[in-house]
Each structure stands twice: as C-alpha cells, then as structure tokens.
Amino acid sequence: MVFLGPGLLLLFLFVIFPAVQTLFLSFQNKDGFAGLTNFVNLFRDEAIWNPARFPTKVPPWGALLHNLVWVCIHLPLTVGLGLVLAVVFAKAPRWVGFARSALFLGIVTPMIVGGVIIRYLFEAHSGIIPQILGALGVPKPWSSGWMAYPETALLGLILGSIWLWVGFSMILHSAGLSSIDPELFEAAQIDGASEWAQFWYITVPLLRPVTIVVAVLTLFWELKIFDIVYVATMGGPGRASTVLALEMYFAGFRALDPYRASAIATLITVVSVPLGYWFAVRRLRA
Amino acid sequence: MRGWMLVLVGLIGFSAFCAESLVVIGPWSGAEAEPFLAVLKAFTEKTGVPVEYRVMRAEDIATVFPAQFAAGLTPGDLVFGWGWWIKEFAGHMVDLSSEIAGIPFVTEPIIVEGKAVGVPYVTWVKPGFWYRKSFFAAHNLQEPTNWTDFISLLERIETIPGVEKAAASGDGVGWPLSDMTEHFLLTFGGLDLFMGLIEGKVKWESPEVRAIFENYLLPFLGHASEPIEWTAALDMWWDGKYGIYFMGNWITGMVEDPNDLGVFTLPGCKAVVGGTDYMFIPKYSKRVEDARKLLAFLISKEGVALRVSKGGKLSMRADVGPENYPPAEAALAQAVGALTIAPDMDDTIGGDWQRAFWDQLKLLWVKPEALDDVLRILDQLHPAAKG
Questions:
Q1: Closest residue of A to B241, CA-based?
Q2: The pTM is what?
Q3: How close, in Å, is residue B238 to chain A by CA atoms?
Q4: pLDDT digit string (tens) for B319-360?
Q5: Which site among A11, A88, A198, B243 is 20 to 30 Å from B312 CA-CA?
Q6: ipTM at complex level
Q7: Radius of gyration of chain A (CA)
Q8: How many independent structural domains does chain B possess?
C-alpha cells in the first residue's frame, strides 16, 4: 500500500477527482442543481443532435452522429487495413520495411500536425486528392477543397485520419502475428490450404484478442477525436464536421459555460463506456 | 563529471538569461510581426530590459489563460487579446489607469469597475477591396462608383486570362469572411442597423438584413473564390489569380510593394470597420513594473510613431498623425478619413457567437442556398437571444 500510495494519490488528483467534479458540474447550472436539464438541452441543440438531416441531406447531422459516422467508417477501415497490412508486410521482402515505417509515421506524428497535413492534402490548389479527382473529371466539391464544403469535410477528415491511425493497428497486429506458431501455417500448407484459407481460418481467429484490443482503443480514439478536427476545419463549415469533444471545447472555452461542457464530457463517457464494454467483454467472451 | 558540471552551469546561466526577459505574447508572426519587433528592440535599447516575443493567437490565449489565471500564473507579462475576453477576465488584470492618464486615444481603453484593464495599441481598419494598381492599369480596370459598376468590374476581371475568380476569399478560422460581410452590412444597411445587430436589437432574419444578403452579398459570392487560407489567398491574389481581395490595412505590411496597392470601398459606403489590438498585464506577472514600463513605451508618442512608421497599422493616438506614416498608410488614412469607424462586430460580441459567425459564413460562401439556416443560427446563438 505504501508503494501504491503515490500512484493512487496522483490517480485520485488528476483522474478521479476531475471526473467526479465533471459529473457533478454536468447536473448543475449557474443557479445550482439543474437535474437533467443540461442533457435535455444537448439533445435539443442541433449542434449536438440533428438526426432530421441524416442521412438524406448533407451534414451537419450533429456532433454525436458525426462521431458515430466516424466510428462506422474509420473503425473497420483502420482495424481491417492494419490487419491486412500486417499480414502483407510479414510475407513481403525486407526492403519494403520503409513502407511499413511510412505507415507507422502516422501514429508518431502529433495529431495537430496531422490535422494540418489533412487540411493541405484536401486543399483546392495544393491538395493532391482534389487535383487527382479534378484531373479525372470528377465534379465539385470532390475536386475542390474538401474542408470547405459540408458534403466533403467530415469524410475528408475521416479518410485523412486513417493514415494517422492505421500504423497503430498494423503494429499491434504484427506483434500478434509473430506470436502465432508457424507450424500451424506449415501444417495448413501441407494440407493444401490456400493463402486465403490460411488467413481466414488461422490468422484471423488467432489474432482476435489483438483485433479486439485495437478495435476498443480505436473506438475510444474516435469518440474523443478533437485535435485533427480543430486544426483542419474547426468543426465547419456550418458545423458540418463538428464532433463532441470539439463542442465540449467550444462550450468550455468560447462560451465559458462549464456546465454544458461538463454535460458533453459526460455524454462522451456515457457513449464510450457501453460501446467499449460491449467490445471488450462480450466480444472477447464470444 | 567536468562535462556535466559545464552543462549544469550552462543551463543555470541560460535559465538566468531567460528569466530576465520580459515575455510579450501577441498574435502576429512573420512579416506582420516585424514592425512590432522593431519597437520591442527599441525599448530594450532604451531601458536595457530584454524582451522575448512569443506568438499566440487570440483564440489560444482565450483557451490557455483561464486555467493559468485560476492557478495564479501567467505565461506572459504583457499580452494582446480580444476586448470582450479582457472584459470577461478583468479581475485578473493589472489596473493601468496611471499609464494611460492624459493620452488622447482614438479608440477607448477597456475600463471595468473604474479600472483600466485593456489598453489599445495602434489601430487597424478594414477599408474595402484591395487591388494591384499595376493589374488594374494593365487591364484598363477602374474603381467602381456604383453597385452595377462593381458587378461589371467583377465580370470583367473574370474574363482576364489566368484569373480564377474576381475576388479572393481569405480563410483561417473564418474572420476574413466576417470582415467582408460586415462591410456589406455597413454599406447597404448603415451604421444603425449594424449596431442593432451587435446589440441584438435587430434580428438577422429581419427583412432588411435578409435583403442585404440576398441582393448584394449572394450575387457577389458568385464571383468570389471558395475560402482559402488567407495568407495563401494573399499570394495568389498578388500573383494575379484573383483581381481583388478584402483585407484589413495590415495587408500593406505583407506585400512586396505597398505602393502598388489600391483600395476601394463598396460604392456608397459611409462607414468601415476599425478597431485596435488590446493589451493587458496579468496581475500574476512577476515583472509587473517592467511590464508597465514596456506598456508605457508602447503607447508613448515615441513608441507609437516608431510603430506606425513601419507600416501595416495606424496610430491610436490623436497626437501621432499621418506625417509618421509610410506613403501607403498615409493614402489610406486620407481615404478613410471621411468615413465613420464602426466597431468590429464579431470582436465586440465575442464568445461562442463569434466562432459560430465565422463558421456559418464559411458555409454560406460555398452554399448560398443555406442562407435561411445561417441567419436562423446567428439569431439563435446571439447573446441577446440567450439572455
């Protein structure tokens, strides 16, 4: 206990106390106890929840839905791509190591820098994506500045962030691959199993614990995404790419409303915990 | 061991050196900061007090400083910030009444409960659309005298080979778009309507405001580029990809040849937005007296004359006149001399509305059909509507 003391003290001061304080504030307003008012107001605010436009009209759909869209697109792509890349690189010649390094660079790049890169990647005049699409005759806004248009801003952020995160998935899957007994693959080859069959019936099931860890951590990353959006679009145009953490920041530091900011923080936790629990416990048991 | 000792002594010496510097935090960087750095250098030469200048945008100051204040700390000894934000955190600022006594300011200091907490430092105006005289001369273009002329000018510019759109639209966090919108509101709505919008007495969805958007701003947007990062837009405009560019007068300090700059307001304009950068001294500074000395130098006749002589800004002292300006600023001062100066709308309202204003205009620029939503949200988020 003596040895645990300093760590527990730090944990209490910098994690537990602020979390409890945030929860407490989320049920308050400037006049005192407010019950669920802050949360009701959040769901009445189209900046947070605007399902009437989803999915038939272009964003904004509200920060909560934007986060969920982020999860639906980014999660399978980064987890799946990371797994595939790990397998490909494990079988590829040594010299392609530079490609693996390039992919891993994304995860060691500060997210603020990542946001700037995404912004310029999709910029109308200097961005490679609009330039290529323009050359192929794709119409606006796809061949223009993605961050400037509500149709493309959110998707651009999500696609751009895949490079920033896929290295994480790839490295963890690579580590998992190295722990699989090679005799399993040798036996399968002797039995005449194809590459695909080896991947599907050996690699994927044996990597399931790693995949779940990657998926859970990716999910949390997506639900608390902030820096990339802040730098690249500030949630715009017209809230078309805003996310919960950004709205929390605006409430806390621009509107100077700690109660609304705390309510959004609590909402992020409420959304994250069940999803994380479902992934981590239910799927692991399955 | 000896090596480590040397490193330690070096570090202590470096720390001591750093500790002596007065930390000034302001929003300008690159070419925009150079004239201000010259003034800081003059202060150091005069007083022997070294000054370290750090760049931090007003948005970041608004984010970082509240937590620092709560801890009784400050990252800077003299800081530049938004007026609305300084008012909000006035309790954390040093009273500068003695420093500003007797100074004939053009723009008023920020006084909260009898204490001067924000002091204006030079002024800027957002006079209208800038153009290159050489570009206009080469293509036989003239400044417009009425709205029809203005639209004709835009159409003619777009026929010039190499021009993408008639007008460049600067972006960043969104303020260049709000500057342009404010110019349209002032020109076609007048000062009373403009002030009514600031105070929340006039609604954005009111017919007269909607008419300005529908009849003037939206037709103009047909000739304007999509929002481009404002310094990149500046370069592209200077290189001839765009014919005109709406910007504040600090543009004169950011182009290769300020003497090639011409500027015109929208025809019929009688007021332009102008303002100042406010500075404050946090009461948690350990160098309050030195910071006071620096502030006094910055707002002295000598300090202001030196600053405005470098271009990009105008004097905030009535007794430092155009004779101190470079030719481009002198011409500008003459051009806007007859116009009323209106406060910057988004800087005055501040808070989350400011951010929403910028963001909604970014949407309007690429989706003019979103006008109804934009106006509705601007009304919804106005502090007057929130109570």
A1: A125
A2: 0.85
A3: 15
A4: 988 888 888 788 888 777 788 888 899 988 988 899 999 999
A5: B243
A6: 0.87
A7: 22
A8: 2
